[in-house]
Design goal:
about 290 residues; alpha+beta
């Protein structure tokens, strides 16, 4: 296998005793080595840019966050690819979400994440996203590449949903440093024994943008009740919610299945495309509220 051979060639001091692919993740081919190291190889040129950003960002971010982030011990800057010691934990969805101390900790983690200085993030290669243009461009891509797969009624509802978002008061938020892909079933790691968050991984999408999007994965994977309790503690810790904050969180959640179609097209997976189309059809057969 190319990936295993590359690691052995570039880092001969690491004796590879076991090598297993980690399933999931859209940006990287990911492998667990010897049960205690994670290696990530970016799949596309844009993902290579994102990984180089992480290489610069994470050492500084590590000192700011109250939980662990990956610390790259093996770095190949040419390919590029990285390896780091595995952060032991399971997705937060496997923890006791009824525990108020967990919601409080998650609120504090997000408040501190969003308080990371924007100026420092920019110095470390993080991009300041033109949010309106980004979602206008995404809508154009959705129309161009997915509408041919969707029924007329679904297309109309998707169009109305995007046009309402783009034409509304959704871009007056205060930009913050954000993770932008904070999945509750993948990227927030928890110690089930202590019922505490221990780490956050996969920072390739980190940017300056809308803090509401960092609650989307929690809403999707952990439900409304837990998300609302996290939001309450987030505000207690200094996080700010503008009037349209919750509406934007729901918007980002509801367009997730459109991302799934586009990803399926990118990797040429008919099964992924089929699942995405089914999810979009189920979501948008009736006009979303």
């Amino acid at each position: 296998m190319y990936f295993r051979a590359a690691i052995q060639r570039d880092f001969p001091e690491l004796e590879i005793r076991s090598f297993e692919r980690v399933i999931g993740g859209w940006a990287s081919d990911t492998f667990e080595v010897n049960g205690n190291f994670i290696f990530r190889f970016p799949r596309m040129p844009c993902h290579k840019f994102d990984l180089r950003k992480e290489i610069k960002l994470l050492p500084t971010l590590s000192g700011h966050m109250p939980v662990k982030v990956p610390e790259f011990e093996f770095i190949n800057n040419e390919v590029p690819y990285v390896g780091y010691r595995k952060i032991e934990g399971v997705p937060i969805t496997r923890c006791d979400l009824s525990d108020e101390s967990l919601a409080k900790q998650m609120g504090r983690v997000l408040a501190l994440l969003h308080a990371f200085p924007i100026e420092k993030a920019l110095e470390l290669g993080v991009l300041d996203i033109d949010w309106r243009k980004d979602y206008s461009d995404f809508y154009a891509k959705v129309r161009r590449e997915t509408f041919c797969l969707l029924g007329e009624n679904v297309r109309g509802n998707v169009s109305a949903f995007f046009e309402s978002f783009l034409g509304g008061d959704n871009f007056s938020f205060g930009p913050r440093f954000i993770h932008r892909d904070l999945s509750g079933d993948a990227h927030i790691l928890c110690d089930t024994g202590a019922n505490r968050v221990v780490g956050i991984i996969d920072w390739e999408d980190a940017c300056i943008g809308d803090p509401a999007i960092d609650f989307t994965g929690i809403l999707w994977d952990c439900g409304m009740d837990f998300t609302e309790r996290v939001l309450g503690h987030y505000m207690e810790q200094g996080g700010r919610l503008d009037p349209a904050f919750r509406n934007r969180t729901r918007f980002y959640r509801e367009i997730g299945s459109l991302h799934a179609i586009l990803y399926g097209q990118e990797i040429e997976s008919q099964e992924q495309i089929k699942r995405g189309v089914e999810a979009v059809t189920a979501e948008f057969s009736k006009c979303p509220s």
